[in-house]
Automatic annotation (TrEMBL):
Function: Catalyzes the phosphorylation of the 3'-hydroxyl group of dephosphocoenzyme A to form coenzyme A.
Species this chain originates from: Neobacillus paridis
Pathways per UniProt: Cofactor biosynthesis; coenzyme A biosynthesis; CoA from (R)-pantothenate: step 5/5
HAMAP family in alphabetical order: Dephospho_CoA_kinase
Compartment(s) of residence: Cytoplasm
Family the UniProt entry places it in: Belongs to the CoaE family.
Protein name (database record): Dephospho-CoA kinase
Recorded name of the encoding gene: coaE
Entry keywords, A to Z: ATP-binding, Coenzyme A biosynthesis, Cytoplasm, Kinase, Nucleotide-binding, Transferase
Superkingdom as given in the UniProt entry: Bacteria
């Protein structure tokens, strides 16, 4: 019976960093952000719905979604964000469920679902355990600004579009404090996996 772990956090809290550590241990990670990108590619059902709702001004020259343009809309207008979520999230859930099914057929010891909005979208039913990657807000803001080359206002708008990380602390089964070094994050990850009966090098 596979252990299904819902990995979550906040934007730029370190989910992908932890996901990469898990992949290095040959653990299957199913990434909601990756599935979300695939779901909105040209020709996909969600692609047509997004154009119908947001217009062709959110397209690049090559006809693909201009992610920066769409982001600048939805991270500043809640009703537009909810509209996009209604279009994209069902497709993401469908695609992830398919991949979970495939992974379970291979009787994998552990399957990790990297879902940024695990708690916001009430998706904890998909997982046996939830693992939060926590970071202090000022570090989160700094890392997001540096990674995405965003202004403080733009980064803050993205952070404010999610449940505060402090509120997620009480919801998760386990927490990795990612304020420190990668080495410290890895050590916490290995201990949590071991506590859950998953022993990796
Ligand atoms: C708005 C979009 C086009 C911006 O694309 P961009 O490449 O800049 O960001 P990316 O997709 O890599 O997301 C980066 C992070 O932003 C946060 N985020 C993305 N979408 C949302 C959302 N609807 N609500 C809150 N936070 C979000 C997540 O922490 C995510 O990890 C894209 O995020 C999108 O299509 N979002 C809607 C689908 C969604 O909710 N995805 C996130 C979880 S499935
Ligand atoms: N412990 C750490 N020390 C220093 N930098 C870190 C640490 N953890 C993550 N980072 C950096 O912070 C940024 C955000 O990390 P990461 O991309 O893993 O976050 P995320 O939660 O996956 O973000 P998103 O919500 O956008 O998917 C990246 O540039 C990453 O290299």
């Amino acid at each position: 019976m596979s252990l299904v772990v819902g990995l979550t956090g906040g934007i730029a809290s370190g989910k992908s960093t932890v996901s990469n550590m898990l992949k290095e241990m040959n653990i299957t990670v199913i990434d909601a952000d990756v599935e979300s990108r695939l779901a909105v590619q040209k020709g996909e059902p969600a692609y047509r719905k997004i154009i119908a709702e947001f217009g062709r001004e959110i397209l690049l020259e090559n006809g693909e979604i201009d992610r920066a343009a769409l982001g600048s809309i939805i991270f500043h207008q809640e009703e537009k964000r909810l509209l996009l979520n209604q279009i994209v999230h069902p497709e993401v859930r469908r695609r992830m469920n398919e991949k979970v099914k495939q992974a379970k057929l291979h009787h994998e010891e552990i399957i990790v679902l990297d879902i940024p909005l695990l708690f916001e979208s009430n998706l904890t039913y998909m997982a046996d355990k939830t693992l939060l990657v926590y970071v202090d807000e000022e570090i989160q803001l700094k890392r997001l600004m540096e990674r995405n080359h965003l202004s403080a206002a733009e980064a803050e708008a993205r952070i404010q579009s999610q449940m505060p990380l402090s509120a997620k602390l009480t919801l998760a089964d386990a927490v990795i404090n990612n304020n420190g070094t990668l080495r410290e994050t890895k050590r916490q990850l290995m201990k949590i996996l071991a506590d859950w009966g998953i022993h990796k090098e």
